[in-house]
Amino acid sequence: MKMMMNIIEVTIVMKMIKVTMVKMIEMMMKLIEAMMVFTRTGLEMKIIIITNSMTH
Fold it and tell me: Using CA of residue 10, residue 12, residue 18, residue 20, what is the dihedral sign?
């Protein structure tokens, strides 16, 4: 009986780990996407600032 409980506990823990792993990966992907967008806009802003300072 105790052995069965251990197996059930292990499977529950494994499922939880799997879910958290998937969530973590999703979060990482979103972060990377946001970073890419941010850097793109940042680069555009830098280019605008540079061109503005050049013209002035």
Answer: negative
